[in-house]
Amino acid sequence: MRKYRQSPDLILLGIAFTLLILGLTMVYSASAVKAASQFGDSLYFLKRQLLFAVVGVGLMFAVMRIDYHFWGAWAKLALIACYVLLCVVLIPGVGLARGGARSWLGVGAFSIQPSEFTKVALIIFLAKYLSEHQSLLPNFWRGLVRSFLPVLLAFGLIMLQPDLGTGMVLVLTCVIMIFIAGARIKHFVMMGSLGVLGFVGLIVSAPYRIKRLTSFVDPWQDPKQGGFQIIQSLLAIGPGGLLGFGLGQSRQKYQYLPEPQTDFIFSIVSEELGFIGASFVLVLFFLLLWRGILIAMKAPDLFGTLLAVGITGMIAIQIMINIAVVTGLIPVTGITLPFLSYGGSSLTLMLVSIGILLNVSKHAH
After folding, report:
1. pTM of structure
2. Cβ–Cβ < 8 Å for 142, 136
3. Over the stretch 220-245, which tens digit does the pLDDT of each residue have?
4. Strand partners for 112
5. In terms of Cα–Cα distance, which of 268, 275, 237, 239 is closest to 253?
6. Burial class of residue 47 (count of CB atoms within 10 Å of its CB; 0-12, 13-18, 19+)
7. Where are the beta strands (DSSP E) in the chain?
8. How far apart are CA 364 and CA 142, in angstroms?
9. Is residue 253 within 8 Å of 34, Cβ to Cβ?
10. Strand, coil or helix: what is 284?
11. Nearest one of 113, 69, 140, 49 to 306, comparing CA atoms
């Protein structure tokens, strides 16, 4: 009879709390100037983020106590509910538009982003489906294509908002899960070729994406519009040097760097805490992903393994895309940095995801 550990992965829990505290600190530091200017309250963004952090931590501990198999039983219903929300958010007057994307639903003074819930729901559904139909994966149509259908539906609804960054995270996460489950590499090559053509089509179909691509190649060609964000981001990262200007001493947050508390918060980290501070954040992320991989390897069944792989993959992809954007390695796309960026839906769902990982770790053998 197998023996399972009863305590969660305390190292993962400690890393998550460290990132959360660091994130709250940096959200305040990055947003204080903007909050005071727009709302007359330098704590405006911090208070909201702190509220979601408290809710998220409570949910994390609650989820940690629930056997992860429970979520598999409700996976299909949860995913259907997310599809409905993704449709509702597209209704004019109901969905809230920010930054050119209609991605939010208002709830009182707050708003939620259905695409964030969809990522977690799809991970759970796909982990359940793949664990029950693994034998079909070597078959291209009955295995790989059928597995991708719910992914493509979610991606299509998200692209109607449009939100390419979130769509990329969702698709790449599911690709990792399907590959780990046992799909054939040659099938991925076939679908990957179609995916590249589709990706090019998405870029060509939207003029603003072409503009982002040309700005990425040479941001100084259009420094006041297309290349503005990446130039301001690099002007924050570069001067930070080894030790940075000190916590709260950023210059780029003074109306230079757009949304410094969200997508470009790593630029503020680099500017204020320098190379050492930025490296510390990256080490924390590396350790978190390492614990996630260990949990996946030690899970007692395929469902637990794929669930841990999906959550860990989602976090890893978001980190890589965000860091690549702020450092100018890829064109600008809106992706939050897990635990650090301002955003209630993102933070809450990230903490819930960690709670699921912690429960899987309790069953490790």
Report:
1. 0.92
2. yes
3. 776 677 678 888 888 889 888 899 99
4. 105
5. 268
6. exposed
7. 95-98, 101-107, 110-112
8. 31
9. yes
10. helix
11. 69
Q: Is 19 exposed, middle or buried (0-12, 13-18, 19+ CB in 10 A)?
A: buried
**3 state SS of 101:** strand
- Furthest-apart CA pair in the chain: how many Å? 66
- What is the distance between the alpha carbons of residues 351 and 17, in angstroms, rounded to a whole number? 10
Please give the structure tokens belonging to residue 104.
């939010």
Q: What angle do CA 169, 172, 174 make, to 5 degrees?
A: 105
- pLDDT at residue number 1: 37
Contact 317, 172 (CB under 8 A): yes
Give CA–CA dist 180/177, Å, rounded.
5
- The sign of the dihedral angle between the CA atoms of 208, 213, 217, 219 is positive
| 190, two tokens | 């076939």
Question: Is 267 within 8 Å of 238 (Cβ atoms)?
Answer: no
Q: Cis link prior to 162 (omega < 30° from 0)?
A: yes
